[in-house]
Amino acid sequence: MRKQLKKFAQFTALSSLLVLSACGGDQAAGDKEEQSGGGTVKADIGVISYISGPGAAYGEAITNGLKLAQEEINSKGEVEINLVIEDSAGKQDQALTAAQKLMNSENVTGIIGPTLSTEMNVVGPEADLNGVPIMGTSTTAEGIPQIGDYVFRNSLPEALAIPAAIDKAIEKYDAKKVAILYGNDDVFTKSGFDTMKKAAEEKGLEILTIETFQKGQSDYNAQLTKIKGLNPDLILASALYNEGAVIMDQARKMGIDVPFVGGNGFNSPEVINIAGDAANGLIVATPWYGEKEDEKVQDFVSKYEEEYSKKPDQFAAQAYDALYIMAEALKNAGEADRDALRDALAEVQGFNGILGEFSFDKEGDVVMDPTVLVIEDGAFKVFE
Amino acid sequence: MLIEQLINGITLGSIYAIVALGFTLVFGVLGIINMAHGEIFMFGAFIGVVVTATFKGPLWLAFLAAILVTAAMGYMLERFALRPLRSKQGVSHLAPLISTIGVSILLENLSHHLFGPGNHPFRASFAEISFQIGSITVYLVQIVIFIISVLLMYALSFWLGKTKAGKALRATAENLETASLLGVDVKRTITMTVIIASAMGGIAGILVGMAFNSVTPQMGLSIGLKGLAIIILGGMGNVKGAMAGGLILGLAETFVVVYGNSGYKDAIAFVAIIVILLIRPQGLFGQKISA
Prior knowledge:
The complex is a heterodimer of chains A (384) and B (291). Chain A is an alpha/beta fold. In chain A, 49% of the residues lie in helices and 20% in strands. Chain A contains twelve helices and 15 strands. Chain B has one domain: ABC transporter involved in vitamin B12 uptake, BtuC. In chain B, strands 1-2 form a two-stranded antiparallel ribbon. The model of chain B has no long low-confidence stretch (mean pLDDT 87). The A-B interface holds A 52-57, 60, 184, 211-214, 216-223, 225-226, 228-229, 242, 245-246, 249-250, 253-255, 270, 273-276 and B 1, 4-5, 8-9, 11-12, 112, 116-121, 123, 128, 130, 137, 139, 208, 211-214, 216-219, 222, 253-254, 257-258, 261-263, 265-266.
């Protein structure tokens, strides 16, 4: 028995050595290719996305957007990106495992993802510690880029988007009293709520009540009946679209017809699919507007529709731009090196993507102007 | 406003009660906590969505299809996940619990692939019918849900108490071997029970879809756990207890929102259950087990 064990140990030691040396060989070969490729930077970009579970629609949109961008970038020939996609299932532990797997792979130069701010809160510090540049495309909660020097995002933070939407809504409806409704078991919707509350207080709005709900709940009648009795001018709802759409549906059925102001997660064409006419009157601020008369935007929309036979949402658009920003930074860095990529990313200024003009500030956070949209007659329109 | 909230609470409670009835039936006979019940309930809701939204079928067809599909799923559950464990020697009494958990995970992922993630709206014109009493809006669906839950409770009580099949079922619940020696077709009785419980889950699924217009692959888990809490509250295996427990939980959850903080909705509802169980450990309608 002992002999066998010894043999086994020898075997594993030997085989791991072999694997290691094989890796080394690959690496060397890769380096050579890079140099001889005449300026083509080859890099693996890790992707951590919410591909299975209740929010799988986000992951689907994000990976679709990334794949579309990858195709275009690679066909241009300046940068060659290979995507290594991992599933986080929307769970912190799984996101961390996926991130560690990617970070331990020598070839992965940078990471895009994870999808949720909750996940980024555990993955971000780890990536920063290991010196791997990481960019969130949908992490809009407070404090994400402040995690560290290697953490970036190209998603418009709630702290910029929500006040813009509230401002416009107050102006139009002369609102004085608001009710707030939010999901209290998610970092994202909770942080959206904090921003809403702060914005409402700053604008001198009277907050009639603050109600909460949980992810995946199906009955909101109790909270809505209470809100209805208080007669608010506006309802501020920090919800993801799945819950948000059902909330609007139940509210309209109950006879609540005041406008809703939502955060980023509420901003999806799915709201209209789920809630139908009940979705009318939802106001959101967004970096992404698919109807914009811009060649780049329309190009992206038609390509996306052709490939995946549905309209791209904000998450697909942000992911698409994120990979372009990565490619731009890789090109400027000139090599597939993690530190060089970080420095190049930090220097991205005035990047012109489908979301508009984009820059990173000193902390790696977003500088851009949001567009405020409202749902009218079953479609998103610019809110004036 | 108070009356509207009362109606909200009763509607929610009635749905909980129907789910709990299915739980309690299987527990009463087999002594098994069927963790797949919530997922069968979810499938019932999805069948409703598919019939009404995808095929534009009438509502009665949706009910029929949901009952048929969930009944078939109940049969498969019994045949493949429960029966093989029953006939074997030396199988742990926890084994059926684990196998039903397996089935629930399988069903959740299956529905994810079949129907897609996210929320699916339930478009039935029946769900839109409402009438106004003063300032109160009452939906016909809410009344129908309550009536169906009461009807199901009485039908089950009658069936268990007054019919021959019900007697056979109770005998089986008492002692499997003795019942089989006395000429009860135990295999058939058990299969029937699981099928009926599953079909009830399917009915509850459609009702939830209509009332809340929200159907997701994940809806089974939370309602399944609540169903479990309700049968413990009402007394394991007790039909009236399931009904009462469901209504108590539904009303408690609603009124926590009305008078308190909606953040504590689930917490307070479950604290209420703990308190009731401290006073009556056997559940509201359960019998004391004499040692």
